[in-house]
Structures are given as C-alpha cells and as structure tokens.
Amino acid sequence: MTIVVDTSKSPHARLTPVSLEAVRLQDKFWLPRLEKLRNITIPSQYELLESTGRLFNFRRVAGKARGDFKGLVFNDSDVYKWVEAASFLLAGGFDKSLYDLVGKVVDEIALAQDEDGYVNTFFSLERKNQRWTNLRDMHELYCAGHLIQAAIALFRATGNSRLLEVATRFADHIVKTFGPGGRLGVPGHPEVEMALIELYRETGNKSYLDVAKIFIDNRGKGIIGGSQYHIDHKPFRELSEIVGHAVRALYLNCGAADLYMETGDLELWNALNRLWDNMVNRKMYVTGGLGSRHDGEAFGFDYELPNVQAYSETCAAIASFMWNWRMFLASGEAKYVDIMELTLYNAILAGISLNGKEYFYVNPLADRGKHRRQAWFECACCPPNIARLLAGLPGYFYAVSKNEVWINFYCESTAEIELKNRSIKIIQRTGYPWEGDVTITLHTDGEQDFIVKLRIPGWSNGASVSLNGAELETDIRPGTYLEINRTWKTGDTIKISLPMPVRKLVCNPNVYENLGRIALMRGPIVYCFEAVDNPGFDVWDLIIPGESILETEYRPDLLDGVVIIKGTGYVMDSKWSEESLYNELESKGEKPRKVDFTAIPYYAWCNRKPGPMTVWARTVPFGT
Amino acid sequence: MTIVVDTSKSPHARLTPVSLEAVRLQDKFWLPRLEKLRNITIPSQYELLESTGRLFNFRRVAGKARGDFKGLVFNDSDVYKWVEAASFLLAGGFDKSLYDLVGKVVDEIALAQDEDGYVNTFFSLERKNQRWTNLRDMHELYCAGHLIQAAIALFRATGNSRLLEVATRFADHIVKTFGPGGRLGVPGHPEVEMALIELYRETGNKSYLDVAKIFIDNRGKGIIGGSQYHIDHKPFRELSEIVGHAVRALYLNCGAADLYMETGDLELWNALNRLWDNMVNRKMYVTGGLGSRHDGEAFGFDYELPNVQAYSETCAAIASFMWNWRMFLASGEAKYVDIMELTLYNAILAGISLNGKEYFYVNPLADRGKHRRQAWFECACCPPNIARLLAGLPGYFYAVSKNEVWINFYCESTAEIELKNRSIKIIQRTGYPWEGDVTITLHTDGEQDFIVKLRIPGWSNGASVSLNGAELETDIRPGTYLEINRTWKTGDTIKISLPMPVRKLVCNPNVYENLGRIALMRGPIVYCFEAVDNPGFDVWDLIIPGESILETEYRPDLLDGVVIIKGTGYVMDSKWSEESLYNELESKGEKPRKVDFTAIPYYAWCNRKPGPMTVWARTVPFGT
Q: What is the reported pLDDT for B588?
C-alpha cells in the first residue's frame, strides 16, 4: 500500500484505503499495462540501474567495487523507487524471480549503510564529512524519503523486513540529527516528510511524525535561503499561491496533508486547500499536467500555461495524484478524485510509451514532432516514479470508513474488502474508460448494513444509477459520491451509466494562448491531433467549428486499443518560407478547405511516426 | 557620437556615421520627445540618482559621505549612462545648467577613482581586496564600459576631458590586469568590449583594442563557468544560435561587430550574421523586442515568443538597435536599418511613458492591465539606457563613405554633412512616421559629384522616387538603399513616396500562440488594441476577419498625436467564472456581435486607464 491511513489511528483522516492486494484487475486497459510493467518496464529499468552505475554506487560504498561515484547526487532514489514499484507488483501477484531480484538489490542497499544508520552513496566514503552540510541542494533527505517508502512497500507486500530495518535505523539517525533539540533542518527537496509519517504509521514510533512536523514547520524561516523555488519563501501555513519547483511543492503538500491527517491542524488544511484552489483553477493543464516552466521546473504565474513550452513534468503529475489522494482520504471529497482520474489518464499515462520502456520527462501539449520519449535520462526521476505509481494503482480504487465502501475508480475487476470484520466482494464489469456503463455486483457474507459510495465523475452529465434493476430517483450530481445506504446481500447489483459524449472544452479566457481554441475530451480522456492520423494537412492549422459534429469509434488495432474521435474541420494551409518570422496576410481568393480529422487520446501520442501534435485546435464561433 | 567608425581608420567599416551635432530636428514626433528628455527625463533621473544613493556611493568612496554602499553592485552604471545621455543632449544643443550639472557628477566620479585607476564604488574601500575576484557576477567590467562610453560622449560633445582622463586611467588599469600577459578575464556581462574599442578609436591606443579582443576570444573556454546564460558555452566564432541573457548577448555582439570593423576577422562576421539570422527569423517579436523569457532575462528556443509572458526587456531592444547599427556601418546593408527602425518605433519607444518619466523594463505584447510603467526600478538599467538612446538618436540618421551620403531615417530635419571636405546641407520635409512622403532638398557648395543612398524601408511596397520632379524609372526594391549618382547642385530635390496602407501581418506558423492571429502595422509602427479605446468588449476577444477594411485617422489630440486604425470586427463575449479553468463549450444559439474597434500605436499603450491590451488579434480565414 502506498499509504495506510487507518481512520482508527489517524484521527483526522476520513477514509482508509483498500490495499492493492485486495483488488484483481481483469480489464483490457490497466491489466495489460501492469503486465507490461512487470515483464518489460521493471526488468528494463533494473538493467538501466545496473548499466548507469546506480547499483555500482551501493557496491562501491560496501567495498565490493572500486571507482568514483557515478551520476547525479540523488541517483540512489531511482533504485529506491524501483524497489517500491517492484514491491507493489509483488503485492499484486507474488513472483519468485522478481522477489529474488528485489532481495539482491536490498542486499546492496543494506551493505551500504553506515554504522550510524546513514545511507547515501554520494556522501559515504570520501565525502563522509560533508554529510548534511547542504540540505538545500544535495537531496540527502529526499533520498532518505524514497528509501523509507521503498522499505515500507516491501515489508507490506512480502513481510520482508530487511529494508525496513535499514530505513528505521536511518530514520532514527535523522531524528537524532534534526529532531527536537537537534539541528535546524529543511529538506531542499521535500519527500522525506510523507515518508516519515508513513513510517510512523507503520511502526507507531511518534518521533518520525515529530521530525516530519519540524521539517514542515521550519520552512519559510530562511534556513535554506528563502527562495520560492524551494517553497521556503513563507511559512507553509501562510501559503496561498502554488509556486516554485512543481515536484517539490507537490511532495511537500503530500507531507503536509499527511501531517494534517495525524494532527488535525486546520491551518495546514486551509493552506492546502488554498494551494489546491490556486493550482486547479489557475495553473493546471487540461491534461492535469503541472509546472508550466522549463526554468526551475516550476509553476508559472496564474494562467501561464504555454502549450509548446509546457514543462508538465511526469513526476509533477504523479506528485499531484499522490497529493490529491491524501486530500481525498482526509476529506472524502470527490473533487480530489476527479483530479486524480484526469491526471492519471492523461498527464501521467503520457509519461510512458506503449511499449513500456520509453519515457517523457516533459509533456508538451503541442509539438512539431521533435519531442520524443527516451529510454532513460541522466536525471531519471520520472521512469521509476511512473513505474511505482502504476504498480500501486489498484490501491487507489477503493476506500473504506467505519461503515462505508467508497468506489473511486471504475475498472473491470474484483475486490475483496473487509468492513467491520466481515468480507465484501465487489465485482465490476465495465469497458471503462472507453465505455461509461459499469455493473457492480456485491457478494456479501450474509446480509450486511453499510453504505456504498459511488463516485460520479465531475465530467459526467446525465449519469443514471440503478439498483437491482430499479432506477434510483435520487439527484445525481457530477463531482460527488452517490450514497446508497441499505442492507446488502449477495447478488445485489448496481448499474451506473455515465454518458460519454465527446465534449468540446474551452479554456478560461485569461489563458491568452488558448483563446479561440477547443480541446476534445471523452470520459476522463483528453484527446490530441497527431500528424500520423491526419495526412494531408498540418494539425496545427486545423480549425474545428463550434457546431461540428464529432463521431467516435473503438479501434482495437490502434495504439493497443483506443476510441478515436473523427470529424470534419477545415484548414487554410500555411504557405511559409522557414526563414521569415512575419509576413503580410495575403488574399488571393483562397478558400479554406474541408478536411476530415482524427483525434487520439493524448496519452498515446508519440508512439508512431514523429510529426506535429496539438491538444488545442482552433475554432471559430458558432454561426460564422 | 555614439560610435565613430572612421572608414579611413577602421579598415573594415563600410560607413562613417554623421555626428548628431550635424542634425537639427524640426519635426513633431522626435523633437518634442527630445525636448521632454531634456526638460523632464534627464532632471527627474538626476533626482533619482541622488535619492536612491547612486551618487552617494561615489561621495562615500571619496570620503565625503558616510554609510554603507547603497543598492545593487552595478548601480554606478546608471550614473554613467545618465552622463552619456546628458552629453548627447549637450551635443545636440549646449545648455549651461545641464553642462554644470554633468560637471558636478563628473567631479563625484573622478574623486572616487583609486590611485591605480580603478573605479567602482562597490569594490572600493572595504571591498578593495575583492576586486576582480568574480568577473562572472559582479559587473565591474560592465560598469567600466559604461564609464568609458560616458567619458567619450562627454568629450566629443563638449571637449571636456575630465572624465575621459578618468576613463583612460581605468582602461589602462584594465589593460594591465587583463591584457597580454595578464590574468585570464571574461566579462560576465559584456559591455566593456565595445567601450574599449571606441576608446581605441578615440585615443588611437591599440592596447584597448587588444584587450577587447582578448575578452571576446576568452569566451567559451569555461573561465567563467561555461553557461549559455553568460554566452560562455562556446567560443564566439562558433556561435550560430542566439541564446542566453539577451542584453549580454547583444552587447557582446556589439563588441564583436566593432572588433570586426577593426580587424576584418571574417569568422567574427560570419558568426554575427548567423546570430542575426537566427534572431530575426526565429526569436524576435513583431515589435523588434527580444528575449522571450523572464527567467534569465533570456532568449528562448526558436519560435518561443509568448505574448503575455514576453520579457522583451527595453534594454535588449536598445542593445539590438546598437548592434544593428554596427552591422550596418560594417556592411551598408539596409536589412540592419530595417530592424533598427522597427525596434526604435516599437520595442524601444514603448519603454518610456509619454510624460517622459515612467518606464517599462518588461514589454509584454498582451496584458490584462496589470503591467504598468514605473518611475524607477531597483535594477534601473532601462531608464538611463533609453535616455541615452533617444538623446543620441539624430546621430543615426545619416552615414557617409568616401563618395556617398546615406539617408537612413526620415524625419523633418536639417543636416550639415561634410563630404570630401565640402559641405552638403540636407533638408527633409515630411510628416514621417505618420506620412510616407518625404521631400529632400540639397544645398551644396557649388556643384558636387557624389552618390545619394536613400533607404527604401523593407515594409514599403510600391514606393516611388522622383528627382527634380521627374519620376525615377529605376527598380525600387523595399529593404535596399536606392542609389542616385549624379552631379548635385543647390535646390536639387528628391521626393520619396512610401505608401502607408495598414498591413495585416501574420506570424510564422511555428509560433503556436500566434496561429490564427493578425497584427496591424502601418509604416514602421506596430499597433495594439487597448481597452480604453474599445469600451463594450474585451480586446482579447476581438476577431478581425482577414478581408476587413481598415481605416486610419490622424488624431492630434490623442497620445501626443497618433494615427489610429479603425475597423469593424466581432466578438463572442466570454462569460466565465473567474474560478474555473476549463468549461464545456456551450451553444445557446448566440451569434457573434459586430463591434467597432480602434487600434493605437503599441509604443503608446499604457499611458491611460489600465485595461487589457493585445498586439495580436484573432482572425478567421478569408471567406468564412
């Protein structure tokens, strides 16, 4: 489990997640992706951890290999994220050879731990005296956080506590160094906060919670320089605009949300909600992508959402998913899950190729065909991050409270959920995300009184729900959880029908670049126009009138199976010499020409021949 | 004179500028601006140099005042630029009280010079031992360059050599420190290169040229870290893409162009032209503005030209003007003067308010009304820079070679030009830039054989030229100099007619943000739509069909007298809750509504009530 907020122990959490072990995927969308993750992504990433020296760095510290430290100072974290991803896969389905491989890696890590508990292959050996001397830039606490998360994941998945022992010894070292009475510390790259709180949840050792709180409370005091980039310009509780390095800001928010669930500190909760409102209403791409700026990998100003120059780092989308999950667990509010779903199917999923072994770090919303996925990066935070996110995915499908079962994500699958010490089996039959009909059948241990909370996605207008064949007469509002409170028995069947017309989205007119443009969305999926599907014109030139009628078609052969959108638009072909930047508009009586266009899911772009792509198409007002 | 390239001394220069003293403005556009500069801008900037501690810093070093250094490390340069601006004004028209004020400031500077010639009020006194220890960041050579330029300007304008003596002593110190056999030096912020070469031209002391060459040759060797930001990532002669901090890049190009004119080094010239092509064809705003990015005040990628987030620093436009001037003097090619004119009337002139005392540092091409000119900045490079540029303006109007008089800029004015030791008076009668007819009358000292080169602006289609009433049958090509080679006598009259229809410009389709948009231009002036002239709709919503007919009107009462553009377009009014970023496109049968719009010159925006502004308006293809 990515996080375990037990409402009986975390006093300010609203919900407890249902562990991923409880869910068995049977669908055509996620199951093949998780199999690819197991068979291609995880093995190929292991090879890269080896070939790029990331594992060598551990062996070197253990005295088993000679040479200089290789790569960037935070490269240990890639190994930890890989262990976490593999652990989630093991939780989903045990696999001896993967378990043995993980064990081998854990051995390498354990042997690189210093006697005092410290682990970081850059700062061991010859740099030992530089430990903790530059918290702002050197990522020691960041790496520690990933180590702790990996250790917890492995322990929860397999009961193997070897890495957890390493992690707790390191956490104890951190507590000793930065805990009450220790040095003033602020992690330059947040991450360890949420990890320490999860370790507190796992171990019950409150000192981990305390030091996480100290790390959050120490921000904004200038200890690491006071920059917006590091989200150190203000105390956390005073923040209202989301700024700075996007992944740092969002990981910090994860930690603060975790802290809120443990402490109930409303100043934290209010700050988190101010940041959320600002992010969602001013700084989020239509794909859920975050962080507009290449420079500083940072959030931009309000409404600064360039398409071609979008940064929209895959890790930032993952971090947003993680943060929204915590906000949801704290509150039970559907709006957070709406952002999770949007982000998952679009900004996150675009980060990995269909073949499972190439990645986007940066995710533009328009491109000329030059931006391509890579097998790896020197700074390779994204590949193992997307691996761990997808590997843990079934763990986000359900949540429970004392008397409720919350169904967050729809997917053909079976789940075994424990509620009030009795078991409930939930079977989902659906073609989601391509089809919006979901049939949910319950198998209960006799008759059981509880509440089922069904997520009605924010994008779904006109949803209907029936129970055992009878339409529910209730007011079904998008962006809420529909509550069904009754005595359940085996065979009870809920049918949800979420209409999935193609929606034409327009953007807030403060976003200059998107004025006069529309984006297409169907269900949770954002579409784009890619050159390879649209020969004969440049997709950047495409104009789709507001009233144009759009059709959809499921194409099992295309891009591992996608619903495409088709329609008719027009183009005025650009005739341009590459050399000039500005020309006079000339009319030689040309008329726009009609063209048939095809749109594909944004997540699937850049898996074929390179060429121009855009999410936003030009439009003209109705009736012109 | 801003620079003096004497073709008889600078062997690789094509042209020698005609000094600004030779030109008397009599027009309604520039003359009132230069008077405002003298009566408002220069006195108010002097007050600010005083009140912000910039002059205090000199007095402090001279032992006449006590306290800490005030402001930013490069604040001396603002004082020097002010002296340079004032000197140009003195050259244009002597004025005892201004001369005395300049003399007072020069006294302050002279008294702050160390015994060894060094001048920099930050690094004197308590920081003396830190001199020259951080060439990358600390702007010592940058300030030195501005001191040298100010000194030359004052000397040339008035014969007062006090500051020139200070500057040459400092230059000698720089030669001793960084010249042949000295330390390896690279100016983090280029500027001193062009100043030293000009000092060489003024004094004939070749060591200044040598050290300027060393500074340029030392780049790209990693001496100051090798960043693109500092244009230190490659040797200058290998550059082909213009990158990094825009002002630094462009000042460096000025120095390299000066060096080319002295040395004829074709590798420099070829690199300069590669950079120019890249800049003009990939990275220049339609206003001539440069440097797309706030972060690093830097050039972006090719075609990265955001409108709202444009940086387009006023100083970068000024630097481009200066660089293009040097490229023109080196080559006699009209394309460089086209960029100068574009930049002057748009990107530069927008940098100062109509009242002469408020400034833009950043020049967006679209705004919501929040961006306003300021009376000063903590980093106040732009205000005195625009002052010195405008004060020196008449010095760019003409150039000569052995047997040619080049007329670069059109403006109601009289000039006395010396050619082959004989005098030629040139009288221009014109309503430029609002009208494209120019009557040029020559007064010669008897009959004189020489060539008149008339600039035919790149924007002028259908230009015609007559001589003494007879139409010239020659092929008149925009973007060239038309050559008239004859025996001239007093009363000879050239009439140039440059048609000034409103031109609708479209942008290279690689600039995503400008797709489906047009900008209006008339003569050299770029227009914009500002809310205050367009009540009843939001200018960001305005759609101007490609075939719409546009009218112009001279409005003497408006914005100190401007030609406005009027027409009819339409809008679909945005209805939007500020809170949401994406909505569904809804059709309730609304039709676009017709609106009358007014466009004003971009340079004049933000002089009235705040509100939305845009240079680019949406359009729809012809015939839709």
A: 62
Q: Within chain B, which residue ranges are assigned CATH 1.50.10?
A: 16-396
The pLDDT value given to residue A575: 75
User: Exposure of A414 by Cβ count < 10 A (0-12 exposed, 13-18 middle, 19+ buried)?
Assistant: middle
* Residues A272, A260 contacting (CB under 8 angstroms): yes
Beta strands in B353-491 (DSSP E): 366-367, 398-401, 404-407, 413-419, 422-430, 437-444, 448-456, 464-467, 470-471, 480-488
How many whole angstroms separate alpha carbon A40 and alpha carbon A48? Answer: 12
Confidence at residue B315, expressed as pLDDT on a 0 to 100 scale: 98
* CATH assignment of A16-396, among 1.10.150, 1.50.10, 1.10.357, 3.30.460: 1.50.10
Question: Which one-letter DSSP state was computed for residue B216?
Answer: H
pLDDT at residue A589 in the model: 63
| Interchain CB distance below 8 Å, B295 and A295 | yes
Quote the CA–CA distance of B65 and A357 in Å, as a whole number.
Answer: 68
Q: Which residues of B touch A512 (CB under 8 A)?
A: 307-308, 366, 513, 540, 614
Strands A525-530 and A517-522: antiparallel
Range B141-162 average pLDDT: 97
Distance between CA atoms of residues A358 and A356, nearest Å: 6
* Start-to-end C-alpha separation, chain A: 54
Q: What is the pLDDT of residue B578?
A: 74
Q: Which residues contact B8 (CB under 8 A, 6 or more apart)?
A: none
The verdict on A594 touching B (C-beta cutoff 8 Å) is no
Is the pLDDT confidence value at B517 over 90?
Answer: yes
Every domain range in chain A assigned CATH 2.60.40:
400-497
**Span of A325-334, B4-13, B515-524 with lowest mean pLDDT:** B4-13
Is pLDDT of B577 > 90?
A: no
- To 10 degrees, what angle do helices A76-92 and A42-51 make? 160
The two tokens of residue A2 are 């990515």
B203-239 per-residue burial string, b: 16 or more CB within 10 A, e: under 16:
eebebbbebbbbbbebbbeeebeebbbbbbbbebbeb
Q: In this predicted structure, what is the pLDDT of residue B357? A: 95
Q: In the structure encoding, which two tokens stand for residue A140, read together?
A: 């020691």
Query: What local confidence, expressed as pLDDT, does residue A119 receive?
Result: 98
Beta pairing, strands B448-456 & B464-467: unpaired
Those residues whose C-beta lies under 8 Å from the C-beta of residue B29, and which sit 6 or more positions away, are: B411, B432, B433, B434, B561
Question: What CATH number does the domain located at A400-497 have?
Answer: 2.60.40
> CB atoms < 10 A from the CB of A129, how many?
7
Measured between beta carbons, the chain B residues lying within 8 angstroms of A540 are 509, 512, 515
Residue B116 CB neighbour total at 10 angstroms: 12
pLDDT tens digit sequence for A349-366: 999 999 999 999 999 999
pTM value is 0.93
Taking only the tens place, the pLDDT of each residue in A422-481 is 999 999 999 999 999 999 999 998 999 999 999 999 999 999 999 999 999 888 999 999
Q: What is the ipTM of this complex?
A: 0.93
Question: What integer is the mean pLDDT of B65-77?
Answer: 96
Q: CB contact, 8 Å: B335 with chain A?
A: no
Q: Is the peptide bond before A433 cis (omega within 30 degrees of 0)?
A: yes
Closest Cα partner for A71 from A387, A377, A384?
A: A377
Q: What integer best gives the mean pLDDT of chain B?
A: 96
Is B309 in the A-facing interface, judged by CB distances under 8 Å? Answer: yes
Task: Say yes or no: A558 contacts chain B, CB-CB below 8 A.
Answer: no
Query: B460: closest CA among A584, A577, A587?
Result: A584
CA A35/CA A33 separation, integer angstroms? 5
Q: Which residues 6+ apart lie within 8 Å of B63 measured at CB?
A: none
Contact B623 A592 (CB under 8 A): yes
Does the structure show a pLDDT above 80 at A276?
Answer: yes
